[in-house]
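This entry is set out below.
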Amino acid sequence: MTGWPEGYGRHVFDSVGSTLVEAQRMAPTLAGPAWLLAHEQTAARGRRGRPWATPRGNFAGTLVLPTDDPPQTAALRSFVASLALFEAFVAVTGTPQAFALKWPNDVLLRGEKVAGILLETAGRHLIIGIGVNLIAAPGVEEVEAGAVRPVSLKSALGLTISPEAFLDALAAAYAPLEARFRQSGFAPIRRDWLHHAARLGEVITARTMRDSWRGRFEDVDENGNLVLSTADGRLAIAAADVYFDET
């Protein structure tokens, strides 16, 4: 992966409230896909409005992607972004065995969370927010009980990568995967994602605000659903938080 991908904009900010909010504001003015990076976020958020700590030195980026895809197709880009993150981590660390992909939108480093993805929409644009713990991670007390512990690239591997260097690697990884998704659909993305999936074949728990299911992680189907083999049969889950048993 070399060079900035053709056709993608690049916008770097010293400080913003949230790259997701900035992306929503900028989307109507952009001529094509564009990456936004902030060295500091003062009002960052994760899934379900949860706070996301982003001290200077960590990666806080967002891809603004024009698309006419229906929502269910656009949402599959969480898997495209996950794969791009995996490839970017490999490019900057040279240690593919250290990373795994956790359904639906996290990247694990030696079993602990190093990156997360959040998808939103803005008119005819998909907004893909990405946070990476490059130099620091939230404390265990800052995450919900039972969740995968956070970790930073620096603490786990002893590597210090600048946010802009990581953006270059991530943008270079994402562009060909996006082209593959547009040309060939979800099938090849799904195949490659499953190759790097965390806890595939193991018993996990999936929870929503209302329900909880426990079963063997069998697959991700053609719609991106988590497929569990449970005591009540095979179950496809469209959205949930996944929890692992301690090992």
